């Protein structure tokens, strides 16, 4: 295994560390952001079963070991996880979000470079993951706004006669 294949998996560890750091500040939202990553991954597995695209490493040499037959290429699970994590982290903390976005692009690119995915696999994976996490972030923000409005004190003014 090359540093690229190890690096792709290490990026997932970076995302986990960021979620852990954000946990202390945004407990429930960080947990739900992580849950969004799991939902995005589950959706990508369903898409893989429907599309069933062979990996490029089946027909051309690759740097990384080619996964077993039946482990389909489209969309890239690493990219889905990276895109979902980056978007969830972005929704919680902008500075970490920039770091996560760079890590997500690096992780996705490495999957193409080592020869286990096509470019469209990783682009679709990044988009799918980011869209699922973004949708969850929007729902959480709406819920939080409703709760803030509901918790607002009621002011009663005397009527002028």
UniProtKB/TrEMBL annotation:
The keyword Cell membrane applies. Its main location: membrane. Gene3D superfamilies: Phosphatidic acid phosphatase type 2/haloperoxidase. It is a multi-pass membrane protein. Residues 30-137 form the Phosphatidic acid phosphatase type 2/haloperoxidase domain. The chain crosses the membrane at residues 6-24, 96-116, 122-140. Keywords: Cell membrane, Hydrolase, Membrane, Transmembrane, Transmembrane helix. GO terms for cellular component: plasma membrane. GO terms for molecular function: hydrolase activity. It comes from the Bacteria. It is found in: Cell membrane. Pfam families: PAP2. Signal peptide: none annotated. This is Undecaprenyl-diphosphatase. The lineage of its organism: Bacteria, Bacillati, Actinomycetota, Actinomycetes, Pseudonocardiales.
